[in-house]
Amino acid sequence: MLPFFRVIALLEGVSYILLLFIATPVKYFMNEPKYVKLLGMPHGILFIMYIILAVIVGSNLKWNNKTMRTVLLASIIPFGTFYVDKKFLKQ
User: Fold this and answer.
1) What percent of the chain shows pLDDT beyond 90?
2) What is the pLDDT of residues 53-77, one digit of tens each?
3) Which helix (H) or strand (E) holds 13?
4) Per-residue pLDDT at 58
Protein backbone atom coordinates (compact mmCIF):
# COMPACT_ATOMS: atom_id res chain seq x y z
CA MET A 1 0.00 0.00 0.00
CA LEU A 2 2.88 2.38 0.78
CA PRO A 3 4.30 2.47 -2.79
CA PHE A 4 0.82 3.23 -4.15
CA PHE A 5 0.37 6.01 -1.60
CA ARG A 6 3.72 7.50 -2.61
CA VAL A 7 2.63 7.60 -6.26
CA ILE A 8 -0.69 9.22 -5.36
CA ALA A 9 1.11 11.74 -3.12
CA LEU A 10 3.44 12.66 -5.98
CA LEU A 11 0.59 13.01 -8.48
CA GLU A 12 -1.52 15.02 -6.03
CA GLY A 13 1.38 17.36 -5.35
CA VAL A 14 2.11 17.88 -9.04
CA SER A 15 -1.55 18.43 -9.89
CA TYR A 16 -1.89 20.96 -7.06
CA ILE A 17 1.17 22.90 -8.22
CA LEU A 18 -0.05 22.92 -11.82
CA LEU A 19 -3.49 24.05 -10.73
CA LEU A 20 -2.19 26.73 -8.38
CA PHE A 21 0.73 28.15 -10.34
CA ILE A 22 -0.25 27.57 -13.96
CA ALA A 23 -3.99 27.07 -14.45
CA THR A 24 -5.22 29.69 -11.99
CA PRO A 25 -2.97 32.52 -13.25
CA VAL A 26 -3.91 31.66 -16.84
CA LYS A 27 -7.57 31.80 -15.83
CA TYR A 28 -7.35 35.21 -14.22
CA PHE A 29 -4.67 36.95 -16.30
CA MET A 30 -5.56 35.56 -19.73
CA ASN A 31 -9.26 34.99 -19.11
CA GLU A 32 -8.93 31.32 -20.08
CA PRO A 33 -10.68 29.01 -17.58
CA LYS A 34 -10.31 25.77 -19.55
CA TYR A 35 -7.09 24.75 -17.78
CA VAL A 36 -8.70 25.02 -14.36
CA LYS A 37 -11.57 22.88 -15.61
CA LEU A 38 -9.12 20.43 -17.16
CA LEU A 39 -6.96 20.06 -14.03
CA GLY A 40 -9.62 20.57 -11.37
CA MET A 41 -11.37 17.21 -11.50
CA PRO A 42 -8.22 15.05 -11.61
CA HIS A 43 -6.74 17.05 -8.74
CA GLY A 44 -9.94 16.63 -6.73
CA ILE A 45 -9.91 12.87 -7.24
CA LEU A 46 -6.22 12.66 -6.34
CA PHE A 47 -6.82 14.80 -3.25
CA ILE A 48 -9.58 12.48 -2.02
CA MET A 49 -7.44 9.42 -2.75
CA TYR A 50 -4.53 11.01 -0.86
CA ILE A 51 -6.66 11.64 2.23
CA ILE A 52 -8.14 8.12 2.24
CA LEU A 53 -4.76 6.47 1.68
CA ALA A 54 -3.11 8.65 4.31
CA VAL A 55 -5.59 7.41 6.90
CA ILE A 56 -5.14 3.77 5.82
CA VAL A 57 -1.34 3.93 5.65
CA GLY A 58 -1.18 5.94 8.89
CA SER A 59 -3.16 3.32 10.76
CA ASN A 60 -1.06 0.51 9.26
CA LEU A 61 2.19 2.27 10.22
CA LYS A 62 0.77 3.32 13.61
CA TRP A 63 1.45 7.03 13.11
CA ASN A 64 0.85 9.21 16.14
CA ASN A 65 -1.65 12.08 15.96
CA LYS A 66 1.01 14.69 15.21
CA THR A 67 2.36 12.74 12.24
CA MET A 68 -1.15 12.09 10.94
CA ARG A 69 -2.03 15.79 11.18
CA THR A 70 1.17 16.72 9.38
CA VAL A 71 0.52 14.27 6.55
CA LEU A 72 -3.08 15.42 6.16
CA LEU A 73 -2.20 19.11 6.37
CA ALA A 74 0.48 18.64 3.71
CA SER A 75 -2.23 17.98 1.15
CA ILE A 76 -3.36 21.62 1.25
CA ILE A 77 0.10 23.22 1.34
CA PRO A 78 1.96 23.62 -1.97
CA PHE A 79 4.89 21.17 -2.11
CA GLY A 80 3.63 19.60 1.14
CA THR A 81 3.22 16.13 -0.28
CA PHE A 82 6.86 16.15 -1.40
CA TYR A 83 7.91 16.91 2.17
CA VAL A 84 5.73 14.06 3.46
CA ASP A 85 7.27 11.66 0.97
CA LYS A 86 10.79 12.58 2.01
CA LYS A 87 10.14 12.71 5.76
CA PHE A 88 7.62 9.89 6.38
CA LEU A 89 7.27 7.63 3.35
CA LYS A 90 10.78 6.85 2.10
CA GLN A 91 12.20 3.70 3.58
Assistant:
1) 96
2) 999 999 999 999 999 999 999 999 9
3) helix 2-18
4) 96
Q: Is the per-residue pLDDT at 37 higher than 80?
A: yes
Domain count, the chain: 1
Range of the domain at 53: 2-89
Rounded (10°) CA dihedral 49, 21, 35, 45? 0
Handedness of CA 57, 62, 63, 65 (dihedral sign): positive
Separation CA 31–CA 8 (nearest Å): 30
Long-range pairs for 78-85: beta carbons < 8 A, 24 or more residues apart: 78/16, 78/17, 78/20, 78/21, 79/13, 79/17, 80/13, 81/9, 81/10, 81/12, 81/13, 81/16, 81/50, 82/9, 82/10, 82/13, 84/9, 85/6, 85/9, 85/10
